[in-house]
Specification:
Strands 1, 2, 3, 4, 7 and 8 form a six-stranded antiparallel sheet that branches. By secondary structure, the protein is α+β, with helices and mostly antiparallel strands. Helix content is 46%, strand content 12%. It folds into two domains: 2-134 and 299-344, no CATH class; 141-297, no CATH class. β5 (236-239) and β6 (245-248) form a beta hairpin.
Length: 364
């Protein structure tokens, strides 16, 4: 067991240091992001092993990963990354307060689940998108045929409509998820026979959801949307483990030549029109304004509770696939010791890691 755990920690170390270094640190005047991130990882360390056991008891990780290979599923690459890394970050934090909690067995429970689910999700032996040259190609040929069949050409006028609506939805989800960038996620790049590349982008939990503050989104007509972006073949595209598209040249939407929009709210892939996309973006603008006003009225601990819930519940989509999400207590914070809470939630800048040290320590 210890050999497998140490091997998986090594695999995570090899990818996560670069990912976290490349991710631009975001400092918000409105929301205490660093405080809620640290708190959520402590909760993950204290509680993920028991939650994972509840999930695996109902459905094996391989089946969960297989079922996640569909548009609209948030059991995706970045949520997989979070399950493993949040637990390990929390382990590192709690090693300073109470190292007695840590054990190989607890870590094995979480990392074994992550590894088996991730490999099934990716359909091969890879644990990360980075292992596959920064690609996340998880959809079946049948699914891709359905998505590609809906694509129609894009002229300058339509390109501007799509670009504007996409930016509106991303900004809306960023605030809805309390200043974090996991409300949308990309897979691909996929290839068309003519050599053009395709990014499939999901927009998750647009409407009312388990987020208790999502009442501001009650007018949203759809909960999940899937956009198909066809990019000219002169653009090089990769997609990181965070589900983020990286391109050369940078502004890949300048080369958008085809597009289609779908929803999976009914369990089936159903195509929507550009008019419906614009209507959703209009609702998002109003909801974002209302959400901003509601956040301003919150005290600091309320904001921390909301943000930590977003991060802590990265396991929830996997529990939903297994059919046990409603049986699990997702309250956050819950188990963080009261005497540690003030220190864990201090406002602080992220520390620069020693480049020669392992990100996460292995067991001896």
């Amino acid at each position: 067991m210890i050999e497998r755990v140490n091997h998986l920690i090594g695999e995570i170390n090899s990818v996560s240091r670069d990912l976290m270094a490349e991710r631009t640190h975001y400092s918000s005047q409105l929301i205490p992001v660093s405080a809620y991130v640290v708190l959520s990882t402590v909760e993950a360390f204290l509680r993920y092993p028991d939650i994972v056991e509840s999930i695996v008891e109902k459905m094996p990780p391989e089946e969960i990963g297989k079922r996640a290979r569909t548009p609209g599923s948030q059991a995706n690459s970045v949520f997989l990354w979070g399950v493993a890394n949040f637990f390990l970050i929390g382990r590192r934090v709690m090693s300073l307060a109470d190292p007695s909690i840590d054990s190989v067995e607890r870590t094995h429970t979480v990392l074994d689940f992550w590894a088996r689910t991730s490999q099934a999700y990716r359909g091969n032996d890879h644990l990360h998108a980075a292992n596959a040259n920064n690609t996340i190609q998880v959809y079946s040929e049948e699914t891709l045929e359905t998505l590609f069949a809906g694509v129609s050409s894009v002229d300058n006028e339509r390109r501007q409509i799509i670009r504007k609506a996409n930016a509106t939805l991303i900004n809306y989800l960023f605030l809805l998820y309390f200043d974090t960038r996991v409300g949308h996620g990309d897979t691909g790049p996929y290839r068309l026979p003519d050599g053009r590349s395709v990014i499939v982008r999901d927009y998750f939990r647009l409407g009312e959801s388990d987020f208790w503050w999502s009442g501001v989104s009650k007018e949203m007509p759809y909960n999940n949307l899937t956009g198909v972006f066809v990019i000219n073949k002169n653009v090089d595209l990769t997609i990181t483990d965070f589900g983020t598209t990286v391109s050369n040249p940078e502004n890949y939407l300048d080369d958008l030549s085809g597009f289609a929009l779908f929803t999976t709210d009914s369990g089936e892939i159903r195509q929507l029109s550009d008019e419906e996309l614009v209507a959703v973006a209009d609702v998002a603008k109003t909801a974002q304004k209302n959400h901003y006003r509601s956040i301003v009225k919150m005290d600091r601990d309320e904001k921390i509770a909301c943000g930590s819930y977003v991060y802590f519940t990265f396991l929830r989509p996997f529990a939903e696939i297994a059919g046990v999400a409603d049986d699990i207590d997702w309250t956050c914070p819950r188990d963080t010791p009261e005497d540690l809470y003030p220190f864990i939630t201090l406002d602080s800048e992220p520390q620069i890691a020693d480049p020669d040290a392992e990100l996460f320590t292995r067991y001896e």
